[in-house]
Amino acid sequence: MRANKSTTLTAIVAALAVMLIFPAATFAKQIPEKIDPSVETVLEATGGARAVPVIVTGPSTFAEVADTIPTGVRVTELPIVDSVAAFLTPEEIAQLSSSDVVTDILADNTVYGFEVPSSMDVTNLTIGLGNLTPWNEGGPDGAGVTVAILDSGIATNTDLDESRITGWKDFVNGQALPYDDAGHGTFVAGLIAGDGTASLPVEQGGHATVQLRGVAPAANVVGIKVLDNTGQGRASDLIAGIAWAVENRRDLGIDVLNISIGGNPVASVKHDPVAMAVEYAWQNDIVVVCAAGNEGDFGAGGILSPGNDPLVITVGATDTRQTADPADDAVADYSSVGPTLFDEIAKPDLVAPGNRLVSLRAAGSYIDTNFPDNLLTLEEYAPTSPTGTQSNYLRLSGTSASAPVVSGAVALMISEDPTLSPDDVKVRLMATADPVAGATVFQQGAGTLDVDEALASSLRATSPALSAFVGNGKYSLKQKHYDKWEERSWAKYGWTKFKWTKFKWTKFKWTKFKWTDIVWTKFKWTDYEWAKFKWTILLQGQ
Q1: I want to staple 348 with a disulfide (CB 3.0 to 4.6 A). Which of 43, 215, 445, 447 is the partner?
Q2: Which pLDDT tens digit goes with each residue over 119-159?
Q3: What is the pLDDT of residue 510?
Q4: Coarse DSSP helix, strand, coil percentages of the chain, rounded to the nearest 5 percent
């Protein structure tokens, strides 16, 4: 339930006006120009008495902006947009607004993992891997390719041992070794690169009737933890994680960046710092694959950020109906539908299996503990396992699951042809996708993933592979769509939805990129407790 507006506004106005009291009705007029109305929304929702997460920008360098933050406050540096992120009180926000070094103070939007709690054999057959030479007989396996996974972390697993986790960065708790307290990132990693060791078939000396492995079982992965133990984080964490991936792409050999998380689109991509970050990764030869979101019941305009960016590969989800024949596939009803809000970009770019997929379990994690019914029983895949054997897998659904299926396919493509550019990859995936019967272009994009055809393609991009702009934000999407999204977002995300009519990101562009030697400070968002709000991973169908 939202806070009492008049009481809250009075408290906020007092702080932002530096102890001068104004009537609540004149609140909007009294907020300094530098303080974005999104901050008002956050302060209103939290009662105006707590420190809140904000992004502070300046006209020059992020270092100068960082120097304006009060002593003792933890800071995340965002050199990609010459900004810093921090939790600040209303009084501190008011003081910063008077600094010549500060140009804007915006709310630090929340991002989420899209996951919803069959088998990988069905998935792999559906996308065409059955038409290729098996990976253990010399077929495509993703060897020599590294996929960075921006998520809740990665836990070592029988199917993904520590030798294949070749890089790690924790932006949440600063831990030196890989882990996953949410379980979301490990599930994603398994769909990309799990090698099926824990489900070795009987004919190969194991106990399984079916091997449950990822699309690119020889690829390496890099874990970038930006989500907390319940699968939530901040836009600033997302930006910092993307920046780290680009900064370390050569040392770690990062070819692909999987982003199975996202947040509300609050403005055109021209003004969105997260969009700027994913575009910079793309321009630095990293293929960026994003989940479309699980907002299918909303209808047109439900694509989430950063999947709304025209450069990246945005993936929706299909339901395979648990058959290997793609002819009976359908776009999942929860899969977000385009075009995008504000820009009306045609999204998703393609779809891939995402319903009831099986992948790796992170024992003791948030998902593992809170959704025990999603655990795959041994009777379902390895009924003759020795007594005491524990299942290594669980079953989830969502566009979070479909995106890594495509990331695995991208790893196979780059492994077979390392000269491919991100634009080449996108062109080949879309040109070879198979139409989904009964689905519109804004539900399925170019169609469903066809891996063997993508691997056989010789197409090359002759220009940036931008998704099509089909309007200007008002052609097919009307004011009722924006009003409906605002109402939905308040109900679903709480204060994280900002008022469309007040949001100031639309007044300036994030055009400054600063890439030098980046010094990353230790930072932990989890010191702050949002007791008023529900923080959960977006689980579909629970």
Answers
A1: 445
A2: 335 677 677 776 677 777 778 899 999 999 999 999 999 99
A3: 39
A4: 35, 20, 45
Position 257, amino acid: L
Is there a catalytic annotation at residue 481?
A: no
- How far is CA 366 from its chain centroid? 18
Contacts of 330 (CB under 8 A, 6+ apart): 318, 319, 321, 436, 437, 438, 439
Q: Rounded to 5 degrees, what are φ and ψ at 320?
A: -75, -10
Which one of 83, 97, 121, 184 is the catalytic residue?
Answer: 184
Cα–chain-centroid distance for residue 72?
30
Q: Taking phi first (over 0 means left), then psi (-120 to 50 degrees means alpha), and beta for anything else, what does residue 539 get?
A: beta
At 278, phi and psi to the nearest 5? -70, -35
Structure tokens at 511: 């055009």
Residue type, 476: S
Q: pLDDT confidence of 485, banded at 50, 70, 90?
A: low
Alpha-carbon distance of 30 to 218, in angstroms, equals 58
CA dist 102 and 36 (Å) reads 12
Q: What angle do CA 152, 153, 155 make, to 5 degrees?
A: 130
| Selected catalytic residue, list 36, 82, 104, 151 | 151
Active site annotation includes 400 = yes
Average pLDDT, the chain: 80
What is the rounded CA–CA span in Å between residue 343 and residue 347? 11
Written in H, E and C, the secondary structure of 58-79 is: CCCCHHHHHCCCCCCCCCEEEH
Q: Which of 400, 407, 415, 489 is catalytic?
A: 400
| Pair 106, 503: CB distance under 8 Å | no
Assess whether 184 carries a catalytic annotation.
Answer: yes
Asked if residue 489 lies in contact with residue 266, where contact means CB atoms within 8 angstroms, the answer is no
Crossing angle for the helix pair 37-46 and 5-16, to the nearest 10 degrees: 120
Q: In one letter, which amino acid is 48?
A: G
Q: Which two tokens stand for residue 488?
A: 């939905």
Q: Do strands 165-170 and 83-88 pair parallel, antiparallel, or not at all (unpaired)? A: unpaired
- Say what the pTM is: 0.79
Nearest to 12 by CA among 62, 72, 52: 52
The pLDDT tens digits of the residues spanning 403-413 come to: 999 999 999 99
Encoded tokens for 293: 């979101």
Terminal Cα distance for the chain, rounded: 22
User: Which residue has tokens 């009481």?
Assistant: 7
